[in-house]
Amino acid sequence: MTAPLVYLDNNATTAVAPEVLEAMLPYLREAYGNPSSMHDFGGRLSKDLDAARGRLAALIGAHPDEIVFTSCGTESDNTALASALETHPTKRHLVTTAVEHPAIISQMNHLKKKGYEVTFVGVRPDGVCEPEAIRAALRPDTAVVSVMWANNETGVLMPIDEIAQVVKEHGALFHTDAVQAVGKEPIDLSRTPVDLLSLSGHKLHAPKGVGALYVRRGTPFRPYILGGHQENGRRGGTYAVPNIVALGAAAELAGRHMAEERARVTLLRDRLEAGLLERVPAVHRLGNPELRLFNTCTVSFEYIEGEAILLMLSEHGICASSGSACSSGSLEPSHVLRAMGLPFELCHASIRFSFSRYNTDADVDRVLEVTPGIIRELRRISPFTPPALLR
Ligand SMILES: *Cc1c(COP(=O)(O)O)cnc(C)c1O
After folding, report:
1. Residue 112 lies in a domain
2. Do 96 and 223 fall into the same domain?
3. Of 168, 201, 229, 272, which has the most beta carbons under 10 Å away?
4. 182 CA from centroid of ligand 1 (Å)
5. Is the beta carbon of 76 within 6 A of some atom in ligand 1?
6. pTM of whole model > 0.70?
7. Residues 390, 16: Cα–Cα separation, whole Å
């Protein structure tokens, strides 16, 4: 008998909500037209796109015409940086943090190769990037500053209001990768002076393959995907109607349930965290305990490899994630944890549990039941474990 699935990897991707699936199915079946068509069969779908755009805008305090649908968070991030540079051709400098998602870091490294200058601002040991550190990095030729709203590995929330203020005083464009924050954190862009914001459907219970870029009214913009006149000329490509409808439905659900979900999931997350700290010796909680997403718990178990823990959890049907990525046989410790200045051993032994509205008390019970045994077993075979820990 296989163990029931305990899915605690919601910062990697989420289940499509049943309501979202229902909402998109008609557009995969009979309503398959192209909203850009002259005939009514296709053309009438444009009102469904408008509705989805309105729902997503409402979730983040935006105007519907500030939403550009894309294929994913990565495309939104790439579009934001490319557009900022193209609209400010004399500015050759960019600012970001050392803890961004690869969707930003890879693009920044590519831009460096093309001759741009990039400043990677560091974070405190608790993972927070200070607004003053951003201010210190700004230059007259800074085109754009990109700072994530919430970190995917640790859940740490950046002081985005203050950072946006600092950047606007300076006059550069401000972009935020809010892929982890949208749907979890209250966001009101009528109050927070962000110019560009990226989000992704599959992190908030819509399917993979749809995202959006928020572009504040008046922000100079150049499309990244060139093609037809879709999205008011801001992004070519035939409208992915089912996905866009799904993202609208997911946004509406997230907004409706945000407060109760926060309350319920925080309790689950905190019970898991307290239980692990109580039952397992030499375990550390990573990241600022207050300034973080309510769904994320990242801990580090001394003397063992995160990957080994993940494989054993997986045998028990438990899905979690580790900070380091196993690439070409060598274990690269997470750039996020290294930027926080954590000792090398802790970078290697981190595990992220990330919750969603579908997790239950039984999920927490299951993890607390099997994890102490897994850690004991792995420490028993690790040459680094001090004998005192094994007694
Ligand atoms: C998942 C993620 C992305 C990438 O989004 P995709 O839709 O998978 O391309 C970007 N940034 C952060 C912070 C993420 O968590």
Report:
1. yes
2. yes
3. 201
4. 11
5. no
6. yes
7. 43
